[in-house]
Amino acid sequence: MINEVFMPHAEAYYDGENGFNLAFCCEPGKNVENDTDELGKALIDFVELYLNEYTEKLIALAGHPITKETINTLSITDFRNDVVVLLEYAETLHPYVNFFLHIAINEGLALFDTATADESNEQEIKMIVNGFIKAFYDVKICYDTFYNALTSCFNKNNEDTKEMEIGNKFWFFADQYPQYNNFTLHTTYKLIPSANGKIKFGRLEFGLPEETENEINDIFQGNFIYTNVFLLYTLEEMLYFEFCHMLNNGIAMRVCRNCNRLYLVKGNYDTKYCNRVNDKGISCSSRGAKKHFMNNLDKDKYLKEYDRAYQRLYAKLTRKTMSGADFDKWTKTAAESRKKYKAGEISGEQLLGYLEFPQIPNKKPAGI
Length: 368
Fold this sequence. Notes:
Blueprint: E1 9-14, E2 20-27, E3 30-34, H1 41-47, H2 52-62, H3 74-91, H4 95-116, H5 122-153, H6 166-176, E4 186-195, E5 198-199, H7 213-220, E6 224-232, H8 235-248, E7 252-255, E8 262-265, H9 284-299, H10 301-318, H11 324-342, H12 348-355
Helix pairs in contact: 1-5, 2-3, 2-5, 3-4, 4-5, 5-8, 9-10, 10-11, 10-12, 11-12
C-alpha cells in the first residue's frame, strides 16, 4: 500500500437535513470539530464580510519591492512582518478563511525563512512572495465569485433565476464562471461513529492510542455509519462544496430590508427581515416590523388615527382613569377593526367609529 503524504484539509459530511458536519484536520488522526450550522449560513456569512481593510492591507503587502538588493535587509523583514499581520487579521474574518489561509501561509513562511538565509535565492524568494500574494488574493476572488453565485442563484427576489430548476441555476452560474464546468472535489468513504443521530467527526480515526473502550463499544453496538466524506483542501473547494449542496437542496435567501444583508429563507415563510441582532440586542425582524408599521402610519391617515387612539387610551390606563377590562375590550375590538380595514372589509370612516370610546360599531361613515 502506498503511503500518501498528509495534507491539512477539511472533512465535510452533509446530513441531509439542511445541515452539515465539518472537521478541520491539521495533523494525521487529529480532527477538530467545527461548530456547524444550517446549510448555507457559513457561505452567506463569508460573502457578507467587509473586506475593505483586508484589501488595503493586501495592496500594501503587494507593493513591497523584492529585489536582490532588498534580500536580507530591513525591507524583506518588513515584508515578512506584514504577511504575519495580514494573516492575524484574516483570523478574525471567518473560520474558513482562518483555516485555509493558515495552511497556505504557514507552509510558505517556512520556505521563506530558509530561502532568505541564502542571498543567491532571489528567484525562489520571488516565487514564494508571489505565492503569499496569491493566497491572500484568492480570498478576494472567492468572495467576488460566490457573492455573485449566491445573489444570482438563490435570491428569491431575482426574477431571472428564482423559478429555475437546479440544473439551469448551475448552468447560469457556470456560464459566468466556466472554470467550474469541470471542477471536482476529493471524496472518500469512512466509518464514522455517531451519537443520537449526530456525526462525531472528532472520532473519525480508529486504531489510535487515544481510542477508548467506549468508542470500541460504540462500534460493536452499531452506533456508526459508513458514508461518503468530502476532503477539501482549499477555501475555494470549501465554498464550492457548500454552494453545490445549497443548489441540490433548494435553499433560498433574500436581502434583509433592514440591514441589507443576505439571509436564509426557511420553508415557505414570506419573511422580509433576518434575525441578526444589533449591539442593543434588537433583531432586524423586530426593527423591520416597527419600521414597516411606522411607514404605513405615515401613508394612511386612518392607521395614524388608530395609533393616536391607542396611545391616548393607554395613557388613561396608566393614569388609572380607565379600567384594565375596558382597555382590553377596546383593544380587542379596535385591533379586529384595523385588520378588517387593512383587508378592505370596512372603510376608514368605519374604522374611526370603532376607535371611539365607548365604541360605536354602528356609526355611519361621514358623508353617508
